[in-house]
Design goal:
The chain is an all-alpha fold.
Length: about 1500
């Protein structure tokens, strides 16, 4: 306070007033010496205070203070602020007054002489000097200065009137304050805040300026002669005394800058490059030497300066980044120095600097992405390299990929890999991605910051599209899209061998998943139509996709070249990637050389080795000729050459390269070099000098003198000039020549940046468009790892939001799969979700345990192990609901995934969790029934036998209900019941019945895939299981066994369920039966071909399914042959199997006959009747079958007797008659008791009798059928009459008496009646009647075993048969008067049969009946002169008559002695001895 007291003295004020008054009146005041001394001491203060007195007087006489010129109003304050004798509080007060002027509007755009005042204001605040007092008070002054500058440039309307010089002065003042490390943190942060506001205000004007005009001004300014550059300088270091005196003073400019003529009224573009350059340049190393406080202080200053610069630059880019691109001078600055320095700072180990750099980079890409194509590529590649997980040890990866084989029934191609999916192609150990130097992996906070930045950069909907179209479709760029997706998908999985904390790792996984899901979400949005049209000025999408294809080939060829050059070149030539530009000017060698030089994917070491081979010398010369060495220094030429290849290890190869280089370089006529050999020597010397100066193992470095001495006399006998060699030496010393793959660290970055700048001259524009044109190719490339990553996240993460996002990702992937018609993708989604549901079972049991059943709300609920487990698995329930909601309505997009769907159905069925509709099975008898979970009867119905008590007991114990299952049912707890109810609710939410209904509406391809999946699962549980157990040897407890030892698989309800589902789907999709039939029939035929090894119910369902499908086939002309193949398969079932399914067979065949084509061949009819015949053994089925067959044979609308049906119908009726006899053939209950004939009212007997009548009635249609078919008599006899007679003949020996008697009666009526069609002139037909019909009857009746079947009735049948034999002989051979026919042999056979008949049964009744029949025959034969006795006189008989009589007499004498003599009277019988030669 004492220091400020002098400012309160009135004397000083009066003295100052006197001086002013004298000056105004033009008077000159004399001064005395003493007064002079005193005046000299107080004059500065008085003058400063006098200015304020003058201002007072001026203001008093002015009514409107706004009319005063602004310099007059502000002059005293400016003088006080600039005065070095002012103290901090006084200066602070003056600055506060200026701040108030701005606040009150005294300083505004309407102020008088505003521009002059602003110049003074800028100079004043920039050159403020005051005496230092306490540090806190001094910093208050600096804070006030910041406030005034802020008011001037930002807080008022006068900022637009500032000139560039004034702006630079004030910015420099603020920046200096920001960088003064000795100032308090609060002051520096306040200055930084002010700088941010100013930067936003200044750069915000870019939106208002005209880029063309401003660029023109900048070029004009550059053309004018400049006496000094307009630039900013930031003193970074100051002593303690300078903090107060020079804290805000440029110092270097002094007062000169104050008088520089400003360009007023606009923010010119001249200012912006300096500001941007200041913000982007890192701290120069030259500052290190000026620091006396050591490295810690230097690092603190370095980080502080960088942080301030990064903050300001970020604010600048956020403000005008979108506008900077319109100003070429600013774009160049950002693209080169700005990005380069930012990328270098992005490698900083300081977290604050790294955060600032990454934030600025994100803002840069956010606003200027269209100008930063190659810069973005470099940054993204660097980020991915640092963020990517380090490669795992080979042993771990080998072990990891040795996974178990996929579960049976699941297609191997669809099994998801719930781990990182490697998407890189490895061709013959070659890599598609050029080798990059290893980088230090980012860990901890660094990794989080880089991931957050990557997430920020990629948040645009078009980001991935832009990556793909600009980089992946550019042959000179990396596949950034594929690399990024690969990194993100692998980033979702936890790192192995990671030292990161669990929270950091989880955060990293969440970020990667979030970016993946954003990619999927954006693509799904484009698929919905939320996309942009491709801009016409961009390269066409077709060309880009063609470039992508070519790039893939080039990468593959390069990879093969890197493995084996010959294979690579052959591949490149095959796909016309080389030698396609051949012309008279371009040879094959030159074409190859151009490719080798331009391809950045080749291994430089292999390239150098390949080019330096002796056989490739011409190629090496063409390769060198591609370089432009004109006017290029030797060192630069060597650098350029060695950047394209690496020198091989052998000296001869190096020599070839050096010699070829010398040849080409000398041809460019370099200065200072006289011969080609001199170039050769220089090349070697540069290589050796580079090694000597930069090899750490060399202790004594080569000096310039050594280098000059080594090259003495090598320039054509002369020496190189010292300046020439000095230039070479300095160039190598400062910049080491490094091979491309050795560019690591800072050198690697410098090389990469150099390459970037070189490529930027040829790089096209960065295309930005949220187009859907590339989505198909993008999605097709990356869908598998993306879905695997989402599945892993869904299964392993517990965060509800993440799970919800993953669910959305699954749905969107499924939508995209349908949109792009990629069934593999949809399958993979389904497979991934199905594994998360826990509804898949590795080993589904055959037998269903006895689960407890409880009553809940009047409904029976089965509490199974699955229902309890699934009810507590919330994530599994989510997966199930999502899965089935996705599949519902999208079934046409599913292929292999149906396997998992039906596996879950199968598992749910086994645990009674499926909707009722899906548990039903249809047949032809009882309509709809439920599929039983347990077999209700033994696996095979064996013939009944009297096994006694033990047999009955064992049979009872073998049944499924033999054990007391009720006692084995466990009790269900309340918690288990609650879990089961949760499962039921979840299954209801899955809408399985809707999905099942939608399956019936699928397209052909999807439907076939569904049926194939069902068939594969069913095959696994039946045919494959049978084969496996047969190969392994069936366990005695694993299945049933028949009496003959045949192994039978136990009843498997899942197999029946799968079969029923398959058949039901096929029957409801008849329009696709041609596609479905081969798949289903393959399974059914395999089952029925081995029907004896499966349970009855399974085979029954297989037969029903086959018949249901056959009913459909009957209506499809194209599948007509398959109908009869199916029926033939059923017809050939083993008898006991056919008996068990007979009812279904006859019902099915009956329906088929109603819908079959009207015309069928005889073979087809035979198959139909064969199928019907297989049902006769079943009592219930036989009734239906007989009615059906009878309707064919009876007269009426149902009659279907045609030439094609006759044989089958006859055979079927014959079998019915035979079936009646099987009742007699069964073993009697007690062997000693005589067999009892069944009563006639038994159904089989009645059907047998009716069958005989129907067979007899068939004779009526023979003539009409023969006439309609225009058959010859021989054909009629052969195909109709003879089979009819043969059938009746066979049934004439039927064990059933009623059938037998009916048959022989009908046979007699047929043979002796008028309707028998045969050729009377053809004696062979008559012989067939006896040999094929009548004789077999007697032969069969003579068999003892036949006789014993019905001893009482067989005698009568023998009588009838003998009578029929004689009547038939008289009818066909005697009565017809066949004198020309030789009937001797037939007659002898008849006599022999009658002889055997009488001998077999010593019955008086039979003896008399045979005698009477023979008597009639003999008399008729005698009357017909066939059997003529020998006359007493001359014998006029012919040879046939003599032989006939002699043979007849001899045969009859055996069993009827004297019978012939008694019946036929003869005059005199010849001596018996005369006839001996003809007897026998």
């Amino acid at each position: 306070m004492r220091k400020n007291s002098r400012w309160a003295s009135a004397a000083h004020t009066l003295h100052a007033r006197d001086y002013a008054l004298a000056r105004d009146l033009g008077l000159r005041r004399a001064s005395h010496g003493g007064n002079n001394q005193r005046s000299g001491r107080v004059s500065p203060e008085a003058n400063l205070m006098g200015g304020f007195q003058e201002l007072k007087r001026t203001v008093r006489g002015v009514q409107d203070i706004q009319s005063l010129p602004l310099p007059v109003l502000l002059g005293p304050f400016f003088a006080l602020i600039r005065s070095p004798i002012s103290t901090g509080p006084i200066t602070s007060a003056a600055l506060s007054a200026l701040h108030s002027f701005f606040a009150c509007g005294l300083i505004s755009a309407n102020s008088v002489e505003l521009e002059i005042a602003l110049v003074e204001l800028s100079s004043t605040v920039s050159h403020c000097k005051f005496e230092a007092s306490d540090s806190s008070g001094d910093e208050v002054v600096l804070l006030k200065i910041m406030a005034v500058i802020h008011d001037c440039m930002v807080g008022s309307s006068v900022g637009g009137f500032l000139g560039d010089v004034e702006i630079c002065e004030m910015l420099e003042t603020v920046l200096t304050t920001c960088c003064q490390m000795r100032l308090s943190e609060v002051l520096r942060r306040s200055a930084e805040s002010t700088m941010l506001s100013i930067a936003r205000t200044i750069f915000g004007r870019l939106h208002e300026l005209d880029p063309a005009q401003e660029e023109a001004k900048l070029r004009a300014h550059e053309d004018e002669p400049q006496h000094g550059d307009l630039s900013l300088s930031v003193p970074t270091v100051a002593s303690h005394s300078q903090v107060i005196d020079n804290a805000v003073s440029p110092g270097a400019h002094g007062e000169e800058t104050k008088h520089t003529e400003p360009r007023r009224g606009a923010f010119h573009l001249l200012l912006f490059p300096d500001l941007v350059g200041l913000n982007t340049c890192p701290l120069n190393r030259s500052h290190i030497s000026s620091f006396a406080d050591g490295l810690p202080a230097l690092l603190e200053l370095l980080h502080s300066t960088r942080l301030s610069a990064l903050t300001i630059l970020n604010a600048t880019i956020e403000t005008c980044g979108t506008r900077i691109g319109d100003y070429s001078s600013l774009v160049v600055l950002i693209l080169d120095h700005g990005c380069k320095n930012l990328f270098q700072l992005a490698r900083s180990d300081n977290s604050a600097v790294l955060q600032g750099a990454l934030r600025t980079i994100a803002s840069l890409f956010e606003t200027m992405r269209s100008h930063l194509k190659l810069q973005q590529e470099l940054y993204l590649a660097f980020s991915i390299d640092r963020l990517a997980a380090p490669p795992l040890p080979r042993s771990y990866t080998t072990k990891k990929h040795q996974t178990s084989s996929p579960r049976p029934g699941t297609p191997a191609t669809s099994t998801p890999t719930l781990g990182p999916v490697d998407t890189e192609l490895d061709l013959e150990k070659g890599s598609l991605v050029p080798s990059r130097p290893p980088v230090q992996p980012a860990r901890g906070d660094t990794r989080d910051l880089m991931l957050e930045t990557l997430s920020q950069i990629s948040r645009h909907p078009s980001f991935m599209v832009d990556l793909y179209s600009n980089y992946d479709c550019d042959i000179n760029c990396e596949n950034l899209f594929e690399r990024l997706i690969e990194f993100l998908t692998k980033g979702v999985y936890p790192w192995e061998y990671s030292s990161a904390s669990e929270a950091q790792q989880l955060h990293s996984q969440y970020l990667c998943l979030d970016m993946l899901l954003a990619f999927v979400n954006d693509m799904a949005a484009r698929a919905r139509g939320e996309n942009e049209a491709w801009k016409p000025d961009f390269e066409s999408p077709e060309q880009l996709l063609q470039n992508k294809s070519r790039k893939k080939l080039v990468l593959t060829g390069a990879a093969r070249f890197n493995s084996k050059p010959k294979l690579g070149l052959a591949f490149l030539e095959e796909y016309k990637l080389i030698y396609s530009d051949l012309s008279p000017e371009v040879s094959r060698t030159k074409s190859l050389a151009k490719f080798l030089k331009s391809s950045t994917r080749l291994d430089k070491r292999l390239l150098g080795d390949y080019l330096s081979r002796p056989e490739n010398l011409e190629l090496l010369k063409e390769f060198m000729n591609l370089f432009e060495f004109k006017d290029k220094p030797m060192v630069d030429a060597m650098r350029e050459m060695l950047e394209t290849l690496r020198l091989p290890g052998e000296s001869q190869q190096i020599d070839r390269i050096a010699e070829t280089f010398a040849l080409v370089y000398f041809a460019s006529k370099p200065a200072e070099i006289k011969t080609q050999d001199a170039v050769y020597v220089l090349a070697y010397s540069i290589i050796m000098l580079n090694t000597d100066l930069h090899n750490p193992q060399v202790r004594k470095r080569m000096t310039i003198e050594d280098y000059q001495r080594n090259l003495r006399g090598q320039n054509g006998g002369d020496d190189f000039s010292p300046e020439f060699l000095q230039h070479i030496y300095d160039s190598i010393r400062k910049r080491e020549i490094i091979m491309p793959e050795e560019h690591t660290g800072q050198l690697g970055f410098e090389y990469a940046w150099k390459e970037l700048l070189a490529r930027s001259r040829q790089s096209g524009r960065f295309m930005m468009c949220n187009s859907a044109l590339f989505d198909f190719d993008m999605f097709k490339t990356v869908w598998k790892p993306v879905i695997s990553a989402i599945a892993h996240a869904f299964i392993t993460f517990d965060d509800e939001y993440v799970i919800q996002r993953a669910i959305s990702g699954f749905r969107q992937c499924a939508t995209l799969a349908g949109h792009f018609s990629l069934p593999d993708v949809f399958d993979f989604v389904v497979v991934s979700l199905s594994q998360a549901t826990s509804l898949l079972s590795e080993n589904l049991p055959v037998h269903v345990p006895n689960y407890p059943v409880v009553e809940v709300e009047r409904q029976s609920v089965t509490v199974s192990s699955l229902s309890v487990k699934f009810g507590t698995n919330f994530k599994g329930q989510l997966a199930a609901v999502v899965l089935f909601n996705i599949v519902n309505g999208n079934g046409n997009a599913l292929r292999e995934g149906w396997t998992q769907i039906f596996e879950m159905f199968e598992n749910l069925f086994m645990h009674s969790l499926l909707p009722t509709r899906m548990l039903q099975m249809e047949d032809f008898l009882g309509g709809v029934t439920m599929i039983p979970l347990r077999g209700a009867h033994p696996s095979r119905s064996a013939p009944r036998s009297d096994g006694g008590l033990l047999s009955a007991l064992s049979s009872y114990l073998m049944t499924p209900y033999g054990a007391s299952s009720d006692n084995l049912v466990p009790e269900a707890t309340d918690q288990e019941v609650e879990s089961t109810l949760c499962t039921i609710d979840c299954i209801a939410s899955c809408r399985l019945d809707e999905l099942y209904a939608q399956i019936m509406q699928l397209d052909s391809e999807a439907l076939v895939a569904a049926i194939r999946a069902l068939e594969a699962l069913a095959h696994e549980r039946t045919i494959a299981r049978l084969k496996q157990e047969s190969d392994d040897g069936a366990s005695p407890y694993s299945g049933a066994s028949q009496s003959d030892g045949t192994y039978v698989l136990p009843y498997d309800p899942a197999a029946v369920f799968l079969l029923e589902t398959m058949a039901s789907i096929a029957c409801h999709t008849t329009q696709f039966i041609e596609d479905l039939w081969p798949v289903i029939f393959e399974h059914l035929s395999a089952l029925l071909s081995a029907s004896i090894h499966y349970s009855v119910l399974l085979i029954e369902r297989a037969v029903v399914a086959l018949l249901r499908l056959a009913l459909i086939l009957a209506q499809k002309n194209t599948l007509r042959d398959q109908l009869y193949i199916s029926l033939d398969l059923i017809a050939n079932l083993p008898p006991f199997v056919a008996n068990s399914v007979a009812e279904h067979v006859v019902a099915g065949v009956g329906l088929i006959l109603q819908h079959r084509p009207s015309s069928s061949t005889q073979t087809e009819w035979n198959i139909i009747f064969a199928t019907l015949r297989s049902t006769i053994s079943n009592p219930e089925a036989a009734r239906s079958t007989f009615n059906l067959v009878a309707s064919f044979a009876s007269e009426g609308p149902g009659q279907q007797i045609t030439p094609d049906t006759f044989a089958g119908l006859l055979s079927t009726l014959d079998d019915f008659a035979t079936a009646a006899g099987t009742l007699i053939q069964l073993p009697p209950p007690k062997p000693r008791r005589a067999r009892q004939q069944p009563t006639a009212d038994l159904p089989p007997i009645d059907r047998g009798r009716k069958s005989i009548d129907l067979i007899f009635d068939l004779k009526k249609i023979i003539a009409p059928v023969a006439e309609s078919a225009k058959l010859q008599p021989e054909q009629v006899w052969q195909y109709y009459c003879l089979p009819l007679c043969s059938s009746l003949g066979r049934q004439s020996t039927n064990p059933c008496r009623l059938v037998r008697n009916t048959a022989i009666n009908q046979l007699q009526r047929l043979l002796l009646g008028p309707q028998l069609v045969y050729d009377e002139a053809n004696h062979s037909q008559v012989e067939e009647i006896f040999n094929s019909v009548i004789f077999p009857i007697l032969d069969e009746l003579l068999k003892p075993q036949v006789y014993l079947l019905d001893p009482q009735g067989m005698s009568e049948t023998r009588l009838r048969a003998s009578a029929l034999l004689c009547k038939a002989f008289m009818h066909f051979e005697v009565a017809q008067n066949r004198r020309d026919a030789d009937i001797r042999i037939l007659w002898i056979e008849i006599l022999d049969l009658l002889d055997r008949l009488i001998s077999a049964e010593k019955s008086e009744q039979l003896y008399e009946a045979v005698s009477e029949s023979l008597k009639n025959v003999v008399l008729v034969m005698n009357a017909a002169s066939i059997l003529v006795p020998p006359p007493a006189a001359e014998d006029n008989r012919d040879e046939r008559q003599r032989t006939m009589w002699t043979a007849t007499h001899a045969r009859l004498e055996r069993f009827l002695p004297g019978f012939l003599t008694e019946v036929v009277s003869a005059p005199q019988l010849a001596p018996l001895a005369d006839s001996k030669h003809v007897s026998g």
